[in-house]
Amino acid sequence: MKNISGAEAVIWSLINEGVDILFGYPGGAIMPVYDELYKFEDKINHILVRHEQGATHAAQGYARTSGKVGVAIATSGPGATNLVTGIADAQIDSTPMVCITGQVASYLLGSDAFQETDIIGISTPVTKWNYQITKASEIAEIFAKAFYIAKSGRPGPVLIDITKDAQFEILEKFEYNKCKQIRSYVSVPLINEKYLTSAANLINNAQKPFIVWGQGVILGNAENEFLNFINKSGIPAAWTILGLSAISTDHPLNVGMLGMHGNYGPNKLTNECDLLIAIGMRFDDRVTGDLKTYAKQAKVIHFEIDPAEINKNVKVDVPVLGNVKKTLKKILPLIKKKSHKNWVSKFRKLNDIEFNKVIDKEYNKKDGGISMAEVIKSVNNNTNGESILVTDVGQHQMVACRYTKFNLSKSNITSGGLGTMGFALPAAFGAKIGDKKREVIAVIGDGGFQMTIQELGTIYQNNTAVKIIILNNNFLGMVRQWQQLFFEKRYASTEMINPDFVAISKGYFIEASKVDKRKDLDSGIKKMLKHDGPYLLEVVIEKEENVFPMVPSGSSVADIRLE
Amino acid sequence: MKKINYTISIYTENNVGLLNRISAIFLKRHINIKSVTSSESEIHNVFRFILVVNVDEVQIIKLVKQIEKQIEVIAVFFHTDEETIFLETALYKVKSKSLFEERQIQNIIKESRANMVTVKPDFFVIEKTGWREETEDLYNKLRPYGLLQFVRSGRISVSKNTMEISKFLKTK
Q1: Domain span at residue B101?
Q2: A185 contacts B71? CB cut-off 8 A
Q3: Are A143 and A161 contacting, i.e. CB atoms less than 8 angstroms apart?
Q4: Cβ of B71 and A132 within 8 Å?
Q5: Mean of the pLDDT values across residues A427-446?
Q6: Count of helix runs (H) and strand runs (E) in chain B
Q7: Which residues of A touch B27 (CB under 8 A)?
Q8: Please, what is the average pLDDT of chain A?
Q9: Are residues A440 and A411 in the same domain?
Q10: Pairwise CA distance, residues A189 & A311, whole Å
Q11: Which pTM was predicted?
Q12: Could you list the residue range(s) of the whole structural domain that residue A113 is in?
C-alpha cells in the first residue's frame, strides 16, 4: 500500500488483525483515526459508548465471550485516563485487550498542551505492554506487536498511544506483517517433562487429592483436556470465580466455589486434602484466606503459564509450567484411572450442611422479602444453563456466581481481581456483541448500576439485546454486610436513596418493569427473556440480606462461617 | 528472613519508558531502590541496568520474576555481594586553599589512593573508586576541610560466574 496516512495505517493494521469491532469515544487527538473509520464503516463497526470506561469494559466482555482481542479507542487526556480502570481490570483478570489513545502532536509533548496527559506513564503499571507512536512508520510493527502480546501467553491489556502528527503523516509505503515472536518475550514457558512425571506420581499416590481451577482453563481453551483429566483421575474439583463455567456446574466432580463466599465443602477440605492441584489459577487472597494456615498439610502441584505466579503466594512442590491445554493433555496418559468415592462424598456431606443452613433458606425462600438467590433460581429455571451471566461487584455477584447453573464455557463474565463496580452494564453489551447467538443476562446491584448507568444509551443506540436485572436493596450491600459483622452496624454511607430505575430505563427507550412481590418474580423473568431487544427488570429484594458462607478477611479457609 | 544487599543485573532492549516500567515493580511493593546504573552491555544494542536493593531471599526471587516478565526485558540475574565484583566512583570537590594550608589533606589523598582529577586556582577535584566503605571513609576525612561538592555513582558490577546472556540471545 502506498501514500496512506498514519490514521489509515491504523485502520489497515486493525483489519489485518481481524478486528471488526471497536468500542470507543472520539475527541480532538484521535480525530484523524475517526475520520478514517467513517470511510471504513463497512469493515469496522464502531460502538459509541457514553464514557471511555465503558469502552474498556465492553472490550473485556467482548474478549471473554468471543475469545478474541477486545479493542477500545479514546482520545488523549481525559479520554485516555478514563480507560485506566478498565485496563487495570483487564490486567489483573488477564483479559486480552488493545487500547488505542490519541496523543497531542509530538512537538507538543511535555508542553502541557491541551488534553495532554502522560498516559504511557500512567498506564505502565497496569499494562502488559505499552508504547507511544510518534512516527507513522512505526504503526504496522507496533500494532502487530501489540496484538501478539495482548493475546499470547498469559493475556493482558496493551496500550498504544499515537501522536496526532503521526496520524496525519503520509506513509510512502505500508506493509503489515503479523508478529510471531519477540526475542525478549517468552509467551509460553517450555514444558519440563520431569515435573510432569513427578506431578503424575503425586496424583497417582494421593489419597485425598483436590483440584482448584481458575480462568487459565478457559483462556487456554482447555475445557476438554480439563474434563478428561478430572474424569480419569476422579478428583473433586472446585473453581475460582473466574474459572466458573469451564465445566458444567452439575458435573459430579464439580464440588463448588472456592474462597471468601465459596462453598462449605471445598473451603473446609482445602485444609484436609493431601494433594492440592492448582490449575490455571493464582491463589488470590480472596481464595486462600490466611496463607499461613492454607493447605499446609498438602503437597502442591501448580499448572501455570506465568512463571511469576509460581511460589508467589503458596509454596509449590511441583510447578508444571506451560499452557494447560498442552500440559493436561500430556499428563493424561501418565495418570491412573481412579475414583475417590469416599473423599468426594465428604465434599457432598459438607455441602449438604451448607444446603440446610444457607442455600435452602434463600434459594427456596417462601416469605419475607425476595432473596437474591430466588431471582437466580428463576433465571436458572428459564434459561437451561445456556445463557451468559454478567455480574457487577458485591453481594449480587457472589450470589449469582454461587447459584447460576452453567452448561457452557465462557459464560461467566465478571470483574474478579479488581472488583470494579460499574463493570457489568458495559461488559454485558460487549459480551453480547462477542457472542450474538446467546442470551446475555446482566445481574447488577443498585450501587454498581449507577456507576456506568449512562451506557443504557449505548445499548439503546445499538439495540443490543441484553437483559438487565437490577437487584435493588437500596444499599451498598456488601459494605453494609461488613459494617454489620465487623463495624458494629455503623452503616456509614451505605444506604442509597435511589432513582426510579424503570423510568430511567424507559427514558433511554429501553423496555423495563419492576417486581417487588414473590408471586410476580417468575413471570417478570419470563417476560424479560421473551422480549425482543434489550430489557431492564428491577427486582426489589430483601433490604438487609447477608451472603454466607463467609471466610472473614484474614481468616483461615477452614474457619468458614455459615452464619 | 534476613535482608541483605542484592545486585540485580537486567539485560533489556533499548526502549523509552523501560526504566519506568522496572521501577514501578518496586514502587508497587514499597521497596526502595538503593542504586541504579544503566549502560550499554557487552552485547551490541542490548542495555544493562544494575540495581541494588536491600531485601530478603524470598522477595528477591519474586522481584526478579516480575522484572523478567516485562516484555522488553531479555534476562535478569541477581547476586549477593560475595558473588560479584562491584565498585562505585565518588568525586570530591575541595577548595584549593585548603590543599596548601592543610598539609594533612595531601596525606589523606595519598593514603586513600585517590586520584587528583584536576587542580584549578580556586578548587581541586579528587576521584576515588572502590567500595562504599572506602568512598565513605574519604568523605568523612575530607569533610572537616570543607567539601564544595560530593557525588557518588551507582554501583557497577560484574558477576564472578558467567551470565548466560549471549548464549540466550543466540538461540533466539
Answers
A1: 87-152
A2: yes
A3: no
A4: no
A5: 98
A6: 6, 9
A7: 125
A8: 98
A9: yes
A10: 16
A11: 0.96
A12: 2-173
